[in-house]
Amino acid sequence: MGRERYERRGGDDPAGYRNGHQSPVAVKTTMGPVELSRPKLRDTDERFCSQLFGTGVTRTAALEALVISAWVRGLSDRDIEAALAEVLGAEAALSRSTVSRICSQLRDEFVRFSENDLSKLRLDYLYLDGANFKMHEHARPEPVLVAWGIDTEGHPHLVAMEAATSESADAWGDFRAGLKSRCLRAPLLVISDGAPGLIVAIEVQFPQSLRQRCVIHRLRNAAAKVSTGDLDSFKSDWWSVFDHIEEPPGERAVSECLRRLDGFRANWEKAYPAAVACLVEDFASLGVHLRFPAEHWRRIRHTNLISSAPSARRAAGPR
User: Fold this and answer.
1) Are residues 109 and 143 in the same domain?
2) Residues 140-151 pLDDT 10s
3) Which of 140, 252, 261, 306 could make a disulfide contact with 129, Cβ separation 3.0–4.6 Å?
């Protein structure tokens, strides 16, 4: 109404006035239904709109989020309706048609997200990885292929996401084709694990981009070959190969990393030859991040931006 509480404005510009309330309306929330009395205004250009609930809102965003959370975990519309009625009471429950409408909106939003144009997105770094999820209770985990990027201004972007039955070359090839059809430009650096299908997709889609192999994925593979008693020391020595390099980015930093690798190999190769061989193999792809700004090194040497499962953190340590 253009004035402070209790302020009166006279003359030819009264800017409307308060005149009681509209009929009470019940808003369904995660705590049950809440009855609201919306103020009624007269002689104004716009009707009253609550900053909390908007106009004509009958349920809160938190309740819709609860519906979506249940739906993505595999519950049917009927199951969600029954669960809400049991937990919140019949008066706070949503009908199956409302549940279906909320979930349909989510599907539509995902379709728009999956088809939006990427031609204007300028990425320095692109992370590609698969994260495993259980689509339904008691089902085996299945991979969801994910692309996450950091643009030239340092802002993160969820670029693409797609369910798959495996992380095969065909699955990653289809995912790559989707990025191409949406006109994604090549980034400076692609960070991924060592899955053969993914590597092939990167080489085909982004032949001019550098590729950084995930240091944590590689360590996780090697850690399975080391006894529990030596594991902490083994991991600590591995990270010392990359941490606190004071040489400038580029060949000098890479050379220092290789010098440290020789020391790591000398310490552990006799006791755990298979584990050391696992880390030394394709080592050149593990040090590519050292060619980029030093303040970025700890964030672009692994894909844990995507795959931060507890098992991965336990195997590789907090890096």
Assistant:
1) no
2) 888 889 999 999
3) 306
If asked whether residues 185 and 268 sit together in one domain, one would say no
Q: What's the domain range around 242?
A: 214-319
Interacting residues of 51 by C-beta distance below 8 A, sequence separation 6+? none
* Domain end marker among 74, 96, 114: 114
C-alpha dist (Å) from residue 277 to 148, 194, 215: 30, 15, 14
Please name the amino acid found at residue 157. H
Which stretches does DSSP call E strand in 9-89? 17-21, 25-29, 32-36, 39-42
C-alpha closest to that of 118 among 228, 205, 13: 205
124 and 198 in a single domain? The answer is: yes
Using DSSP, how many helices (H) and how many strands (E) does the chain show?
11, 9
What are the Cα distances from residue 88, in Å, to 71, 81, 85?
17, 10, 5
Distance CA 196, CA 113 (A): 28
Query: How many domains does one find in the chain?
Result: 3
Does residue 275 sit in the same domain as residue 318? yes
Digit-coded pLDDT (tens) for 33-55: 777 777 888 877 777 776 666 66
**Which run of H or of E encompasses 147?**
strand 142-151
Nearest to 244 by CA among 253, 252, 235, 233: 253
Q: State pLDDT tens for residues 235-276.
A: 999 999 999 999 999 999 999 999 999 999 999 999 999 999
- Based on the domain organization, do 5 and 109 belong to the same domain? yes
Residues in the chain: 319
Residue 65 CA to residue 71 CA, distance in Å, equals 10
> Distance from CA of residue 134 to its chain's centroid?
16
Cross-strand pairs, 35? 26
